[in-house]
Amino acid sequence: MVCESWKAQLDTYLDGELPQEELRSFDSHVRNCPSCSADALSRVQLKRAIHMAGKRFTPSAEFRKRMQQNMAPKPRRRFRLEWMLASAAAVLLVVGTLTSTYLGNRSGRDQVFSEIADLHVATLASSSPVDVISSDRHTVKPWFQGRIPFAFNLPELQNSDFSLLGGRMTYLEQTPGAHLIYDERKHHISVFVFQEQSLPSKLSDNALQPGKLSFNMETWSKGGLRYFVVGDASAADIDRLAKLFKAAS
C-alpha cells in the first residue's frame, strides 16, 4: 500500500505530463522500486501494443472513393456559383493538403520521439536492462555483430564522467537497432542507434527540450545511422555524450 500514491501517477509519468520538479524524484523511485518498475513496464508494453494495433486497419481505396463521392457537392444551376464553389474548394484542398502534410510529418516525428522515451523508461524499469553487461566497449560492440544489420563505433570514455553499463537489442516499429546504457553521476542515459533509411519518419538533427518530453534528448544522423541520446541528465551532459559519439563515428 506504500506505493499506491506513486502508482496513481504512473500514467501521468509515462505520458510525460509530470511537472519537471517532480520528474526526477519519480524517476528515481521507479528505478528503485521493483513493484512500480514492473507496473511501469507492463503499462508501457500495453501502450505500445495498443499503438501497433491501431495501425493494422486502414480504410480501403474503394471505401475512401465512395465517401468522397457521397461528400461531393451537388451541381448548381448557375455557372458563376459553380465557379466560385469550385475555386473555394480548390483553395481549401491545397491548404488542407499542405496542413495535413505538415501535421502528419510533425506527428510522425513526435511519435518516434515518444517511442524512444518509452523504450528508455521500459528498459530502466526492467529487471534485466542489458543483455551484454560490460564496461568495455571492445566487449559490447562485437556482441551486436550478426544481431543487427549494421556496425557502429563506441566512444572512448577515459577522462569523462560517463561509464558504460552494457547494451541490448531493441526495436523501433519493427526496425532493429542497438540500445546502449551509460551512467553519469547517478543518472542513466540511453543511446539508441538505428539505420536512417529504415525509420518510419524523416527526422531532423536537433536537441529536444524538457517542455516537449519528460527527458532531455538529442538526435542526429551520420554515415546512414540515426542516433538518439536520451535521459534525465542535464542537457549539457546529454550534449557531451552526444559529442563523444559523433567523434567516434
Please tell me about this protein's structure:
Helices cover 49% and strands 20% of the residues. The longest helix is centred in the middle third of the chain and has 47 residues, at 79-125. The chain is globular. The protein is built from eight helices and seven strands; from the N terminus they run H-H-H-H-H-H-E-H-E-E-E-E-E-E-H. By secondary structure, it is of the alpha+beta class. Strands 1-2-3-4-7-6-5 form a seven-stranded antiparallel beta sheet, sandwiched between helices. It has helices at residues 4-7, 10-14, 20-32, 34-53, 61-71, 79-125, 137-143, 235-248; strands at 132-133, 162-172, 175-184, 187-195, 206-208, 216-222, 225-231. The protein has two domains: 4-54, no CATH class; 62-248, Phosphorylase Kinase, domain 1.
Task: Give a brief description.
With 249 residues, the chain is α+β, with helices and mostly antiparallel strands.
